[in-house]
User: Fold this.
Amino acid sequence: MTYIYFDHAATTPVHPEVVEAMLPHFTQNFGNASSTHSAGREARAVLNQSRDTLASFIGCAPSQLLFTSGGTESDNLALFGAAAARQSLGKHIITSQAEHHAVLHACEHLESQGFEVTYVPVDSTGRVRVSDIEAAIRPDTILISIMYGNNEVGTIQPIQEIGTIARSRGIAFHVDAVQALGMIPMDLSRMPVDFMSFSAHKINGPKGIGALYIAKQAKMEPMLYGGNQERKRRPGTENVASAAGFAKAVQILSRDRYEKQQNLEKLRNAMVAKLHQLLGPEQAVVNGHPDERLPHILNISFPGVSTETMLMNLDLEGIAAASGSACTSGSLEVSHVLKAMQLPDALTTSAIRFSFGIGNTLEHIEEAAAIIATIVGRVRNI
Ligand SMILES: Cc1ncc(COP(=O)(O)O)c(C=O)c1O
Assistant:
């Protein structure tokens, strides 16, 4: 049985070149980047180079980028840090109902600390309306947090428009770009964004490292206290090996991005076409925005076949897919994103997220689509 991994939005395999780039930093160049001796200086140089690589890929200065432990920490740091730094100006925050839990649960925590949060709705494609954001702004609004590309349905949000409004009203703007990195070209020097979150393990880098972009004028309190690392904004001994791995993953992305995107688009379109051919569009309903979407995520409902039944059967056939975000998979709860999109129950209870990446082929698509059609036929007959 071929094992088919269609869950690249949850995590990706580490690219062999990334592993190779990381290895010397465990045994040879293992110094503490804060030490003043030569081993420390060598580690510092690798850290600096890694930061330079990521900064030039996203169009910011290296000093505007700090390394974190991943997307969750970057989101938390941006929200808690900006809220703490700006609370004298007001205590109101705007986000959307379709954010990742790293933002939603951080917002809930802020509510318990006396902040007020408006969760703007999304339309049936998962997009926020800029007019809803505008209408939610109050004199005491200090922060807006909207994701770039949704991790469950792939819908891309109107970041530029929201950022322009935020800037004109003096409101800090955070963007969770964990799923968008490498999928949407971005130049932060031209974007009205104050904070942007990234994670390495979504782009064939190692788990446990991410980054947070902080614009020059943006104010942020740290969450951790300790040494002087990352200019005291995120203290703790730097994860040099992972930073080197993150940088290598970014280099590979900038080298292969065009081909990768074309390939992802091809795989996604082939999956939709094949499923529609085998089942018909009413029995394989694509969720999310038809055009404004990330190329690697396909959310599709098979009415009459519950998400759990489909996932279990796919797993038995050696196919890895997901019900939505990894944090909620395994639970019977309907995805908060599909709920926010107000899709009918027949679609929310039967949705599957397929997400594509390195290693996937058109043969995998053919094989998986045929298996899915068989599962659908079998379950419906029961
Ligand atoms: C949109 C989004 N934000 C944040 C995260 C959390 O990132 P990490 O797993 O690096 O903590 C994820 C991971 O699934 C994500 O998809």
The two ends are 25 Å apart (CA to CA). Residues 70-72, 75, 100, 102, 147, 151, 176, 178-179, 199, 201, 210, 325-326 surround pyridoxal-5'-phosphate (CB under 6 Å). The mean pLDDT is 96. Residues 4-12+257-381 form a domain with the Aspartate Aminotransferase, domain 1 fold (CATH 3.90.1150.10).
